[in-house]
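C-alpha cells incoming
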C-alpha cells in the first residue's frame, strides 16, 4: 500500500515535468513565458515565485474544498491565490528588488496565471492536500524548467551571455556569493570568431520564434512516443468553462442559430 502511494505521488510530481508540462504540452502561461525569458535569471525568479504560489494555493484550496460553495468557487480561488501572490511580491520587493523591477507587472499578474487557476479548479478542488501540494510542485518545476530552457536559448543567442545578473538572486544568501560571479559573458569569444549576438532573440518576435520551435519539438517527441500533440483548444476546454458566462452566451447563440 505504501509503495503504491509513493508511486502515485511520484507520478503526480513527474507529470508536470514532461507528460503534462504546462508550457510545452498544455500550452498554458504563455504570456509570462514569452515576456520574462529574455534572461535565465528572470526565468528562474518567475518560476520560483509561481511555484511557491502554486503549492501554497493548492494546499489551501484543497483543505477548504468541501467548505467553499460551488457557485463562488472561482472568486474564492482568486482571493486565495491573490493573497499568496501579494505575500510573494512583498518578499521579492524587500529582498530581491532588482528581480521585482525586471519582472515588472508580470509578478502581480501571477494572480490570473491560467496554470494556477487551472490546477486549482482541475486538481486541488478534487484531491487531498498532500496530492495537491505534490501536483503544484510538479507543475511549478515543469513551468520553471520550460522558462529556463527558453531563457537559455534567447539569452545565449540574443545577448551573448548566460545567467547574467544571477547575483540579483544570490543576494538572498549574501552580498558576495561565489566571489561576485555574475554569469558568463560569451561576447569576447563570439567577437574572436567574427560573430555577434542575434538581437532578434531577445525581442518579442524572437520569443514567439523560440516558443514555436520548442512546441514543434515537443510535438515531434510526443508523436514518436505515441502520445497526442499539444493543441491550442477553444474556451470549451478551459477548466473554468462551467462557470464562464461568456461561453454560456456563445453556446446559447449557437443553439438559437441551429
Amino acid at each position: 500500500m505504501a509503495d503504491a502511494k509513493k508511486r502515485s505521488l511520484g507520478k503526480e510530481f513527474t507529470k508536470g515535468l514532461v507528460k503534462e508540462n504546462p508550457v510545452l504540452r498544455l500550452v498554458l502561461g504563455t504570456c509570462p513565458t514569452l515576456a520574462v525569458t529574455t534572461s535565465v535569471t528572470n526565468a528562474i525568479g518567475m518560476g520560483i515565485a509561481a511555484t511557491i504560489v502554486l503549492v501554497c494555493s493548492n494546499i489551501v484550496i484543497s483543505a477548504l474544498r468541501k467548505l467553499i460553495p460551488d457557485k463562488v468557487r472561482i472568486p474564492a480561488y482568486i482571493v486565495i491565490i491573490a493573497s499568496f501572490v501579494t505575500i510573494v511580491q512583498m518578499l521579492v520587493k524587500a529582498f530581491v528588488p532588482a528581480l521585482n523591477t525586471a519582472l515588472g507587472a508580470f509578478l502581480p499578474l501571477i494572480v490570473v496565471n491560467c496554470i494556477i487557476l487551472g490546477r486549482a479548479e482541475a486538481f486541488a478542488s478534487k484531491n487531498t492536500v498532500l496530492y495537491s501540494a505534490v501536483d503544484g510542485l510538479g507543475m511549478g518545476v515543469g513551468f520553471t524548467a520550460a522558462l529556463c530552457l527558453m531563457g537559455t536559448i534567447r539569452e545565449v543567442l540574443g545577448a551573448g551571455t548566460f545567467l547574467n545578473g544571477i547575483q540579483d538572486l544570490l543576494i538572498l544568501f549574501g552580498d558576495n556569493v561565489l566571489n561576485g560571479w555574475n554569469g558568463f559573458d560569451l561576447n569576447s569569444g563570439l567577437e574572436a570568431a567574427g560573430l555577434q549576438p542575434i538581437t532578434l532573440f531577445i525581442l518579442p518576435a524572437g520569443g514567439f520564434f523560440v516558443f514555436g520551435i520548442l512546441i514543434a519539438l515537443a510535438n515531434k517527441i510526443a508523436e514518436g512516443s505515441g502520445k497526442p500533440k499539444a493543441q491550442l483548444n477553444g474556451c470549451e476546454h478551459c477548466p473554468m468553462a462551467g462557470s464562464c458566462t461568456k461561453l454560456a452566451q456563445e453556446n446559447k447563440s449557437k443553439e438559437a442559430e441551429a
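note: The first helix runs from residue 2 to 14.
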